[in-house]
Amino acid sequence: MNFRTSLSICILALLAFAAILPPTFVAAQQREMQVYTVRRGDTCGSIANRFYGNWRRYDIILRFNPQLVEGIPESERGACGPFLRPGVVLNLPTEYVPATAGADAEVTAVRRNVRAREPEQTEWQSAARGQDLYRGWRVNTLDESSAEVTFRDRAVVQLRANTLVVIYGGDAGQARRSSGGATLERGTLRSRLGQLRLQVDTPAGQAELSGGSAVLSVDENQTSRVSNFDGGEATLRNDQGATQVRPGFGSKVRPRQRPTPPRPLPPAPSWTEGPQRFLGVRGHGATVTGAWGAVDVARSYRVEVVSGEVVVAATEVPSDVVRFELHQFPEGEYEVRVSTIDGDFFESRPSDPSTLTVVQVGLGGPLAPELGDALPDPTAESAALRVLQGVQLDLPDGYECSFDEARSRWSNCRDSEGLPFAPPAIEIVIPVVAPANVLVGATAGALDLTVQSELPLPNTTYRLTVAGQTVPLTRTELGFQAALDGLAPGTHDATIEVGEPPSAATFARTRIEVGPAPEVEIQPAPPEPRRPLAQAFQLAPQPELFALRDVRAVGHDLFLAGSHYGEHPGNGYWRVAAGGSASIGDHVRLGGSFAGDFQVDDDFRENSRGERSVNLWASARSAPTADLVVGGSLGVWIPTSQGVGALPNVMLQPAVDVDYALTPAFRLRTRQGARLGLASDDRFTWASAYGASIGFNNVLILEFEVALVVGVDRAQDSLLTHVAPGVAISGRVGPVTLSLGARYNVPNDGEPLGHLNVLAGAALHIGP
């Protein structure tokens, strides 16, 4: 085999291989490609708009970059925004031409829900931009949807909502010789043919469209209508006859009836507003509006918004509505056309286009909501974006808007050349802030504010400004709390701001009422009801022990008491004490007593024991409260004899008293102190007493008391301990209080038995 023969075989093999390649692959090999690396903020729509002049042509990006649709359900093909990340490398044709090699038509635009189905299939699939269509394929648009189909010869038809067509193929030449390029089973399509021709079969006949633009529809009764806008003549025919329809005229045909004679189309409306410029929110789009003059013969109006020649939004309104409002438009230039539909459902030529310009702005400040970057849907019904008052506009350079606080909206928006722009469709939500408490008088205080808001409040910095004060606000469960200095009585306007200066913005306003300081009438404290003396053991004091003293006592008292120490009258001694106490003011009290011991034998003859001493003391207490009183005292024992059992030297007794009332009738008391002999060989002890008292109707009182002494006898060089529990009862008869008690002296120093101390006393109360 020579070289020429081998080369021929290789060429034939390559041609054969190319013949079996998919049309898309072949077309891709014939295109000049370029590489683009995705940058932050890019979307498929913005890239398509940059390279191909139309943001909706991101089907081109999907066609040549299958990695973007991997893992996406077929029903969601085309939503490539979430899969576009910075750094992704895309292959893009430098000049896009639909891949129609071998295909009869191609889906070149899709809006919302559009389906396609192969001839032998029963299940519908979502139609995608760039999808090839072959003979027998069906394309169906659902509610609020539309599509564009481009035939092989570049004839274009736009399918409106609820339209079903069957593709039969053919080009301009074939359309004149064969059964046509499509069948319209129901719905409405609009042709854009230029100099081309297209035949469309309908249930009532055939429509031959020769160039220009026309609208063909099939209603629920299978009546076909053609409205010929411009270009060549359209022919409407069936087995009953044919009608030539000139531009500006329309005709209809029913099944098995002759087409009606041509009749003039209704007049097109004229715009009363336009051209218009709008600001939209990035990620949410803009709300665009327009208005036209009424047409007398109108049954309804059809409004279409197009980008290039692709319909991006469409709506029909009744004849009493002469304006439109469509939402969530992305940035770009658009044209709006409106047509009249008369009582016989013939449609006028579209009006002259009104230009719409949309510029996107951002939202700033701590209250700005988080918006996604999904492509907006111009057919969405929601209008205004709801934000909290205090959100700021992030305008492009040269643009400006003023905020009308009285009307809670932005207005007077203009670009760098002074051209007006409609403000973004934003609804300002103003929280209701109200004081939860009333401040009284010019004093500092905590002000609680309740907040009612239809939108959640983000965690950020809030401040309150009132009467020249600016203080931070603390978040609470119901709103805020502010720590304020004194405010003058009256009504004060207050402002709540959000963010840090100088870019802080007003978030809400409220009013704070400050009432006058109330006149406080100082009532003298009622005198404490006099109780029986709660100090029965103090009526017959002993140098060796502490006894509880009533630190709540007021007024003056004289007392006389007698007690016996020992197991029985023949084995012990008697002690007699007399004295008194007096109050100086409300907090100081002085007192003193004289005590002497007497011992008797079995015949009750007195034998002098020798103990004779004087006890003097002074005390002071805190201001009495219902619960707690604390006092301190200093006492001194002065011996007046040196007999048996007498004190050897002068002895000091400092002490602290605590009285705590659990209830008005039940009190806990303690006394802590020391017994300090002034001689070097005298006793040195810590002395204390613990007790409780229970009162009954301020007439009777029951006392429990334990005396505890621990110390050293420096003369004997020995440890001293002394414990004496006791119980007493006191009762009041007029100004006189009678007491009876018993105390048991626990044995110590080797004594086999303890000593019982029985006492009886009477006290006369003088004063309150």
Primary descriptors:
single chain, 768 residues, mainly beta, twelve-stranded antiparallel β-barrel, 5 helices, rod-shaped, disordered N terminus
* Counted beta strands: 51
- The low-confidence parts are 3-29, 74-79, 171-180
Rounded Rg: 54 Å
Q: How many H/I helices? A: 5
Secondary structural class: mainly beta
Largest sheet: 15 strands, antiparallel
Strand coverage percent: over 45%
Distance between the termini: 145 Å
Mean pLDDT across every amino acid position: 81
- Helical content stands at under 10%
- 3D shape: rod-shaped
Structure description:
With 768 residues, the protein is mainly beta. The protein is built from five helices and 51 strands. The radius of gyration is 54 Å and the shape is rod-shaped.
